[in-house]
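So, can you check what follows?
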Amino acid sequence: MTAHRRIEASKIGEVTVVKFVDKKILDEASIQELGAELFGLVEQLNRKSILLNFTDVEFLSSAALGKLITLDRKVKAAKGRLKMSNIRPEILEVFQITKLNKVFDIRKDEAEAIAAFQ
């Protein structure tokens, strides 16, 4: 598995589960690096089923949301599926305000999200 600094990726069956290393995803350099690592899962490793688990994430900047939108487009272009789980209520509120909860498939927890790939 490729070494990542911003994410931890593991596989459960065909699903690549991604957990974020940083609790606060704020500064531009970290977000650029995070984006490159996430995009690499799709572009280099050809992962089609990706679950982003936000368990440890306490804060997400709008620039980070932009990376997630780009990731969603890349996954769809590769005929894959992207799901999200374990999003804290205060972050989920940002998704709702920006209407991104309509764009992304957001599940309560990892188990429910993995089941949704079947």
